[in-house]
Amino acid sequence: MNTIPPNPAILADRFKTLHYDPDERAVVLLNRALYPHQIEYVPCHTVEEVARAIETMVVQGGPPLAYAAGLGLALAAPTAEAYRQAAQRLLRTRPTADDLHHIIPAALERALAALSAQQEPQQAILRYVNGEIERGNQVSRACGQYAADLLQDGDHVLTHCIAGAALCWMLWIAKHQDKTIYLIPTETRPYLQGARLTAQCAKELGIDVTLITDGMPAHLMSQGMVDKFICAADRITLDGHISNKVGTFQIALAAHYHRIPFYVLGYDGPDPHTESADGIEIEWRDGREVLYCGGQRTAVSGIKALYPAFDITPPHLISGIVTDRGVFAAHTIRQYFNRV
Amino acid sequence: MNTIPPNPAILADRFKTLHYDPDERAVVLLNRALYPHQIEYVPCHTVEEVARAIETMVVQGGPPLAYAAGLGLALAAPTAEAYRQAAQRLLRTRPTADDLHHIIPAALERALAALSAQQEPQQAILRYVNGEIERGNQVSRACGQYAADLLQDGDHVLTHCIAGAALCWMLWIAKHQDKTIYLIPTETRPYLQGARLTAQCAKELGIDVTLITDGMPAHLMSQGMVDKFICAADRITLDGHISNKVGTFQIALAAHYHRIPFYVLGYDGPDPHTESADGIEIEWRDGREVLYCGGQRTAVSGIKALYPAFDITPPHLISGIVTDRGVFAAHTIRQYFNRV
Q: Which of A193, A319, A309, A298 minimizes the C-alpha distance to A256?
């Protein structure tokens, strides 16, 4: 790995997309709802502003939104009561991904410990969260390395939504292994993360990108145009289910039907607190978001819509879960904790 | 069927969406690329204008575009050579649906016969095509009747793209059978036929509509929120494959996985000239159409895109093909021609 140059994709390094600015006393977030059509950094000066930024997808993706929330905790008034209330508010933002539900309690614990020890609670939070961001960057790179090793020269890789920093590292490392990879992102309605974020990452990495709509994966598979399906997961259960952006499940079904490998970029493994799929709360977002595209009304007036943000794919449809500790069969992902 | 009032959905009656205007000497088409956001009737004064209207989706759907092409043939100069060239131009517009490839040769034959008999070729074309439109309306109603009989009170019916006049009749007749039906259209990117045309039809019929994106069908099925999947087909082969708007295949896979019935509105049955799937040419449209939504750029610059307009679903995934002559198992759809 020493021969791999720095990864040029902005989304490969979370510090480039979110940080705490001590001069502004603000959490500064790259607005992923607009990126890359507009490059806008949003300063959040209060816990509530950070919470709303998470809810409105200014920051999205399991780890990034958890980091934003963690930094956001540092904006609370330095009292135990204020930190507890801020933690509750931040935990309420989004239910499905597990990272948020690890980082906020851990950051709160450090703040309360610092208060008890009459030390700086804000510094304790920032030290912890920045350490987690750094650790997450390393996890992403290691996960991307294992994923790159699964790719073959000439592979056409279908992906859905944005699989984040590990995808950036997978593509970058594969490129430096002299493998030519063709990336096929689904556009991923309603937020178009594939058409915007994934496509932009691949562009920055010099990877060939061919966009499709969310209805096309099965047809391309039937035509022999897809070699692997690779996406991330917002949560992995101990028995090998994954939740990810809605749409993943039906692509996984199509991949299984066509005997095309489906690998999950699993970063730092399963959620130790979630035994199986019934422990995952699927977020229902405002259905009105489906009636619009890029701020423009696309549907007729006077109708309803539904927006389940995630779906769940069972382990028998998954060929392997790629983590920073190697590749696991979905059914045995629990062993992640035994491997170092 | 005598007790059913006239169908109020505009798309239920093809004469309301396209006709030949003798005063204007034009084929007048409801612009389905804009409907219902804008109500625009496009007059086409030449064969070339009709051909381009078909290519740019001003008129879409297997039968409607075939009718538009048939009427368009009447705009050619009244010579055998002009009719033959016009027929070739119109046949080149779109390859996948079979109706076009039935109506144009038959209309040409009638024009040439009229010329030989020193009769009015234009009148011969219009008489034939208007007769086909009238027949198509009756087929749609009969097909819709058989489909309505398959529905149960309270059914949540998922549909994809726009299944046309038969869908309008199915919903209207079911309503007059005192069945409450909940329609769940996929929006159907890139043209959003579901968000526009299907949703509008259901609104006009007073049917409850809940829109979803193209990535959501499998998840809704997994949650017990879909009772039946029903769509149309642009072509049905003699061995029971169907081609329909891209996205149909992966919804059919998801329906099969969840043991949810998938019915195809098959209108007047299979194409007698297409034995199996390898006889269907899948149209590849300009990939750039995937980079936009409603005229607005949605994808980043500098990337490619693919737009296969249709996909193919094999018979083992289909629960039944509903025609104007009743419901057939997909594998036995060939028997359509034996039933009257």
A: A319
Domains of chain A, with CATH numbers?
Answer: 8-138 (1.20.120.420), 152-338 (3.40.50.10470)
Instruction: Confirm whether the ipTM is greater than 0.85.
Output: yes
Residue linked to tokens 């057939």:
B328
pLDDT tens per residue across span B154-167: 999 999 999 999 99
Name residues 291-310 of chain B within 8 A of A (Cβ): 291, 293-294, 296, 298-300, 302-308, 310
- Chain B nearest-CA distance from A273, in A, is 23
Mean of the per-residue pLDDT values for chain A?
97
- Helix, strand or coil, per DSSP, at residue A17: coil
Q: Which of B219, B253, B306 sits opposite A218 (nearest CB)?
A: B253
Q: Pick the closest to residue B211 from A192, A292, A282 (CA basis).
A: A292
Check residue B340 and give its pLDDT: 81
Task: Tell whether omega for the bond before B6 is within 30 degrees of 0, i.e. cis.
Answer: no
Residues in chain A: 340
Tell which A residues from 61 to 90 touch B, by Cβ distance under 8 Å: none
Peptide linkage before A5 cis (omega within 30 of 0): no
Separation in Å, CA of A33 to nearest CA in chain B: 12
Cβ of B216 and A306 within 8 Å? yes
In B246-285, the residues whose Cβ lies within 8 Å of chain A are 246-247, 249-251, 253-254, 257, 282
CB contact under 8 A, B250 and A246: no
Residue carrying structure tokens 């949605």? B298
Beta strands in chain B (DSSP E): 18-21, 26-30, 41-44, 156-159, 182-185, 208-211, 228-232, 235-236, 242-245, 262-267, 284-285, 292-293, 296-297, 304-305, 307-308, 310-313, 320-323, 326-328
**Closest CB from B190, B199, B306 relative to A300:** B199
What's the half-sphere exposure (Cβ side, CA atoms, 13 Å) at B120? 9
Mind listing the pLDDT tens digit for each residue in B49-92?
999 999 999 999 999 999 999 999 999 999 999 999 999 999 99
CA dihedral B98, B103, B106, B110 (to 10 degrees): -170
Calculate the CA dihedral of residues B229, B232, B238, B240 and round it to 10 degrees.
-10
Nearest Cα to Cα of residue A304 among B228, B212, B148, B246: B212
Q: What is the pLDDT of residues A196-238, one digit of tens each?
A: 999 999 999 999 999 999 999 999 999 999 999 999 999 999 9
Q: CB of A312 within 8 Å of any CB in chain B? A: yes
